[in-house]
Model the fold of this input.
Amino acid sequence: MNAPSLSLPGGTWNLGDRTVTRFGYGAMQLAGPGVMGPPADHQGALAVLREAAALGITHIDTAGVYGPRVTNRLIHEALHPYDASLRLATKVGATRDENGGWPHARRPAELRDAVRENLDDLGLDTLDVVNLRLGDASGPRPGSLAEPFEALVELQEQGLIRHLGVSNVTAEQVAEARSIAPIVCVQNMYNLAHRQDDELIDALAAEGIAYVPFFPLGGFTPLQSTALSAVAGRLDATPMSVALAWLLRRSPNILLIPGTSSVAHLRENVTGAGLPLTDGDLAELDGIGR
Done:
């Protein structure tokens, strides 16, 4: 039996014509080490997904390359048939190699195969959201996204995709994508220490487009970590709780997708993201990235 439900912080946001909880769940950590192979605890992975649903989370982020094909199949096993309120967002644009690398897979034929693979593994006829992943492990890279994005638009026109998004992109690539077709979200690295997308977030909010940050604690210097830990210590909270709570306060279009392979940690993240931050806390935290 699930523990009593917690109150999800942050309210809701619309991904196109679909409403989702701003506090979501990222499924990447359910795969094995290095995001390769099956989880060490299969039943534990299913329990995390079922707990996310029981908590009322309606936005789950996944990708066919996680495993590969592991997290999507876990989602299907744990949650299918899906609740009418659940929205699954996936990513395409990469594959996996025998060394655990993430080589690009952005040719139209590769994208078509990836979309069909996601459909098969998730047991869906239409994917709620498909994000085109660009750049590389070090971040966004400049260049046109027209060819791969137009390939996804064709699949959208065929009814295989409901909404489109982009991931690991520059502001110029966001603008180029929007000149081709509407997008409902942008997924980029963003946190207290890495605020290069501040202007983009505000512009997207004005247009009703979600911003989905990944690595909420990634890339901190020791000095920045010390400052964050000081705020967390004063609030008797973890640095992750403070980072998540700050993101929810940063802008109403920010959707959280923290990942975990633990039910207890999932509940901890939900509680932490609802941490009340005073104006003084916010001012101190804002100084970390500026």
Summary: The chain is about 40% helix and 15% strand. The mean pLDDT is 94.
